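Data card: per-record layout.
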Amino acid sequence: MKRRAAASGRRGVSRLGRLGRVALLPALLSGFGCGEQPQPEQHPRAGRIVLISVDTLRVDRLGAYGSRLGLTPNLDRLAGISDRFVLAYAPAPFTLPSVASMLTGRYPEELGMLENSGKLPAAVPTIAGRLHQKRWATGGVVSNFVLHPWSGLKRGFRNFDARFDEQEINRGVRERTAASTTDAAIKMLKWLVVARPNFFFWVHYQDPHGPYTPPGDRRARYLEREHAASGGARSLELEPRGLGGLPDYQVLEPHRDVGYYRAGYDGEVRYMDEQVGRLLGWLQARGVLQSTAVIFTADHGESFGEDDYWFAHGEHLNEATLRVPLLIHVPGRAPRVREDLAALTDLSPTLLGLAGDAPDPGLPGRDLLAPGAEASASFGYFRTDPPTSEVARMGISDGSYKYLRAGGEEFLYRLPDESANLAQSEPGILARLRDSLGAARARLGPRIEPQNPGLSKARRRQLEALGYAVDE
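The structure for this 472-residue chain is written out next.
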């Protein structure tokens, strides 16, 4: 979703916030890592947990993951004092199924949530619900319309803010951009820090989802560089789904060139990073951050022409749309680079472990902070289905190879290269990963029948405007 007209300004950003938000994070980092480190055999604990998720974030735009664009100074500093997972996968390349997996530890097809119009089944526990039962204060702030309370993700949150005070510039749907999201997050945290000793807070930033309209001069900062980069001068035709051209909802007339849209995306990422820095700086200034675990990730990425798929997500299962950043900071825990593959389904057992609670039996994920966790690895299992994609696609990655099945065809890639299909030349690896995919699907819990989200006509029209088919 996006975006209000640029002339409206980003509401809720004071002059002090604009000037001070980036400078706050270096100061807060001086307090990170203080105190005694837990012994290796101990599981780290935290009585306060903040989960920050971001929409549509390409992992290659973060300096901590190799970018030289300088877009994420705040997140790069956070990465420097966190467990930074080199390779982490989303279970789906679009929002609601991926976020539902993040908050429940279940795969989308187990939840019956294979598109953005689904609703979380009432019988499925969430992280917030589990911690609420333990008398933790719980609060959430979301900025993407598909995460509205009718999605079922509100369950377990004592306070849940889904007020969308802005309007996307192209499709007219409601949204909330980064400055307003941070304002709402700080307001919620003011309640949480006094409500109870323990709290769980989740905030989801819509930026950098398209259309890319960063405020101020943030696009202009990167325009020359993106035009000069490979393919930057290419002009795209209009294609409704982004398959071979520019999707309708991204169009910012009269621009068709790749560099213009990449620069806009870069500006959005920088804007998001500034606002995450402002949020963490607020916590630091109030002495809260030193006792708070911070987890940062994304729901999925964005395709910049991979598979000839432009400025969109949901259709393909490429690395650009499935790989996500994953940073876990726990006060007193030494930072480390994690080579063991992780998945968003690992977040539920990991956060419950941080809170001193045992995960539900049968969850597919693992506790990433458990003693010895670095010696094992998760696997990336992912899927997308019509109407989000033209054909059903599913696949699995072991970090070295990726196996995909799409419309009756098989594909095998040696990562990170996805240009050559090795299905014919590597039959042994193909068979191994084909078997791994079958085993992963066999381990899935019984599918819970999807619930009718009970959409009003207005909400149904909004989802359809976003390109999501909604069953009656």
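Known properties of this structure: The chain has one domain: 6-32+42-379. Residues 3-24, 26-36, 466-472 have pLDDT under 50 and may be disordered.

See the next section for split statistics.
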